[in-house]
Amino acid sequence: MESSSAKKENNLKTFTIASFLNDFGSDIISPIWPLFVTSFAGANMAVLGLIDGLGEAIVSISQAASGYFSDKTRKRKVFVWLGYIFGAASRVGYALANAWQCLVPFRVLDRAGKMRGAPRDAIIADFSNDGDRGSNFGVLRAFDNLGAVCGILFSIAMLDVLGYRSLFLLAAIPSLIGAALIFANVKEPKTKDKFEYKEISLKDFDGNFKLFLALSAVFAFGSFSYSFLLVFANKFGFAVAAVPVLYLLFTLVASVFSIPFGRLSDKIKSRKKILMISYVCWLFSCSLFVISQSWISIVLAFIFYGLYKGAADTVQTAFVAELSPKDRRASGLGGFKMVVGLWALPASFVAGILWDSIGTTAPFYFSIVLTVISITALFFVKEKKLSRIG
Question: In CATH, what number is assigned to the domain containing residue 294?
Fold first, then answer.
């Protein structure tokens, strides 16, 4: 009979491998998606924005819905492997599409596959303890980012060789393998007692969760898409061929530092302090774009952006899981991701208006103000006292 420790190790290993594979397949597409939509599929920039904006909305809604139903049915794994299959199927659809209108339903399917996030994170939070929860999420994020780095490199190397359609078809395979691994290897705890799930309400969550949800929405409103960073670098003087290298740089930094940040949050028994560090890193990144005088400052800005991603993506999930009631954990994670995702929608739109009407540094000034507000509010969030379980 498999021990609890062995089951835990098997689950984490399976999730990290599947996550690596899925992000590898997904980020084969990410660097070439705008070019594919605008040049190959014949869409203009407005249509590209519409498709991507719709995708972000679907991500937010699917995360909240899957979290709710995961708690209600007490089933989590099915949302994870099914989400990977959705992602794989969408890439096949992209490969077969002959006009941008055909891309819309497959983009919706692709983004709906993100429903895997909250249930997967809830499984990891459930089998973790206070002494290793940050580390476990750090390992997961590291493999996410490593898969992204490998996918980007593969895309750059193979696009001219394979072309869009063959590359998209190939990108579906890793996610299908990931789905099979989750289906076959992840073991969920069996529930012996009948469980009556009450309808979800904000009343089920305490003031700390609500305050963190509110400050996260404010921060999300100021943390616009990384696309603005890449466009700024291009306008600053970086050649078009060098811009993907900057994309790789921050992704690689996030991958390298995800595990150390997660482990540090376990060691010091505080997720909030690491999250504060992540906000400060974003603050430094924005400030460097504002005062940029040389290519070195731009490179440093991307490094700080990677540090922000590595810290925030790791400890934020653990923090929300610990602020949520245990029987509402997936709902809390899904609701949090929905709120942040929905506020992220107007963030890039407002940043674009500021960029066009005032100047290229205006979005960064706006974000600096909102980040300072978020950091101030974070001081008032009381985190759960973590035990010293090793």
Answer: 1.20.1250.20
Asked if 328 and 71 touch (Cβ cutoff 8 Å), the reply is: yes
Task: Note whether 164 and 36 are within 8 A (CB).
Answer: yes
What token pair was written down for 331? 């709902």
Q: Cα separation of 25 and 253, whole Å?
A: 20
How many residues appear in the chain? 390
Structure tokens at 18: 């599947």
Q: Is the pTM of this model over 0.85?
A: no
Is 383 inside a domain boundary?
Answer: no
Question: CB within 8 A of 207, min separation 6: which ones?
Answer: none
Token code pair at residue 280: 């400060």
Q: Is residue 223 within 8 Å of 367, Cβ to Cβ?
A: yes
Question: Which residues, including other chains, have CB under 8 Å from residue 376's CB and lie 6 or more apart?
Answer: none
Per the CB < 8 A criterion, the answer to whether 121 and 195 are in contact is no
Q: Within a domain: residue 200?
A: no
Residue 390 inside a domain? The answer is no
Residue 198, domain member (yes or no): no
The closest of 95, 94, 93, 88 to 113, measured between CA atoms, is 88
> pLDDT tens digits for the chain (390 residues)?
456 667 777 888 888 899 899 999 988 887 777 667 766 767 665 566 567 666 777 777 787 778 778 777 778 888 888 989 999 999 999 888 888 888 888 888 888 888 887 788 878 877 777 777 777 877 887 788 789 889 988 887 887 788 888 989 999 999 999 999 989 888 776 655 444 545 555 566 667 888 888 998 999 888 877 777 877 887 788 776 677 778 888 888 988 888 888 888 888 888 889 999 999 999 999 999 998 878 899 999 999 999 999 898 878 878 888 887 776 777 777 778 778 877 877 777 778 778 878 888 898 999 999 999 999 999 998 877 665 444
Whose CA is closest to 227, among 340, 57, 104, 348? Answer: 348
Which domain range does residue 358 map to? 4-184+205-378
